[in-house]
Design a protein that fits this description.
The chain has 426 residues and is of the alpha/beta class. The chain has 3 domains: 4-102 and 200-262, 3-Layer(aba) Sandwich (Adenylosuccinate Synthetase, Chain A, domain 1); 104-196, Adenylosuccinate Synthetase, subunit A, domain 2, CATH 1.10.300.10; 266-424, Alpha-Beta Complex (Adenylosuccinate Synthetase, Chain A, domain 3). Helix content is 30%, strand content 19%. It has helices at residues 16-24, 76-88, 107-119, 132-140, 153-174, 182-196, 204-211, 246-251, 284-292, 311-321, 393-406, and strands at residues 4-8, 29-32, 41-45, 48-52, 65-68, 73-74, 96-98, 103-104, 217-220, 260-266, 269-271, 305-307, 309-310, 325-329, 339-348, 354-355, 368-376, 410-414, 422-424. The strands form 5 sheets. It has a 9-stranded mixed sheet, with helices on both faces. Strands 13, 15, 16 and 17 form a 4-stranded mixed sheet that branches. A two-stranded antiparallel sheet has the order 3-4. A hairpin with a 5-residue loop joins strand 15 (339-348) and strand 16. Helix 3 packs across helix 4. The chain starts with a strand and ends with a strand. The structure holds inosinic acid (IMP).
Length: 426
Amino acid sequence: MSNTVVVGAQWGDEGKAKITDLLAKNSDLIIRYQGGCNAGHTVVADNKTYKFHLIPSGILYEGKVCFIGAGTVIHPETFEREVNELIEQGIDVKNLKISPLASITMPYHIEVDGYSEDTATKGKIGTTKKGIGPTYTDKAARMGLKIEDLYSPEALSEKLDVILPLKNKTLEKVYGLQPYTKECITALCEKYAQIFKPYVCFDWQELLHSSKKGKNILFEGAQGVMLDVDYGTYPFVTSSNPIGGGACTGSGYGPTMIDEVIGVSKAYVTRVGEGPFVTELKDETGDKIRNIGHEFGTTTGRPRRTGWFDAVIAKYGVLVGGLTSMALTKIDVFDSFDEIKVCVAYKDTRDGKIYNTYPTNVYMHKYLEPVYETHKGWKTDISGIRKYEDLPENCKKYLARLEEIFEIPISIVSVGPDREQTIFKN
Ligand code: IMP
């Protein structure tokens, strides 16, 4: 038995979906533990492309139980759309289950997220505008609605009597938005109850308990370590905990259940939204990486910011993410490059101070410049290679250097989007 967590080791979009898809094959239960429909995961299997936001990609395999945990936030209509799209593509969703403790993204959360982003002159986060931050804010403020509330009219009514007066005051006075009547929210909740009904897992404790016995559990993270609300580039982060530890709080399993944490890193770095990015390339090389790597957001379609591999954040990710091995994706994007750079430290342009560990105060990142080491490219198409030994020498040297920096092994190398385009190293 092996229980494995998959986390993004950078700012999200590292190709986690492909890695979770590969590991899901040998898992019995797959749990998504945080985030919401801000995530966008693409899986290419049997020449078909599947797009996921919330539903674990393990649903593509027959008979796997896919559980959306308590740490997630769910927008009902988006969930419904995603389920319907999968059904239309011939995917069986009967093993899809949702925790009754997951939080609901309400229409006012999306309105507030959009308003905050659209009107921000300073401090814009560049969110996905899916209402993620406001939903988690209400959860922490004990003003949120949980899926289980939808099936208890008494609890819902009592909660709305507490929540709505305050919510409406804030919507009107702070944001200049329209208030909601209790009747309107109650009617919406009746609709949501119908949407979720086939999937709510009221016996989730039995599910988790029975899965403790000799089953393989895969914990699927969304976003990445650098977007973690506690350890990321705060405030330019999402509002949940994508780090390995988030798997426990978001799933209902304790830390003793976890055997392995696999970090997923691209061979370069991308980020969407605002916030510091020391190795960002705003030049032709950055454009080249974006174009070859198809770096445009799955959820928002935004062009992703691109840059060289940043070993400072990688080492930080290994530490706070609790990583035991790394999966390196999109390495084939460098097939035509003469040289590949890796940032091994940051230099403060004000006083020349060198940072080998990640400086967490992001307000000073504008003064930092990357210290690079340069590696020779391999100038070979590696997308058809399936064995580590067959990789070009320069590629193996590059991977060996990264392993030395990470101080954990690279377990998987991905050389293309398809399931088959994968090299299992150890
Ligand atoms: P939010 O999660 O929509 O609140 O956005 C907060 C930050 O996280 C923004 O910079 C988003 O671009 C980023 N973000 C959220 N989800 C993802 C993702 O799945 N991939 C990459 N970035 C994300």
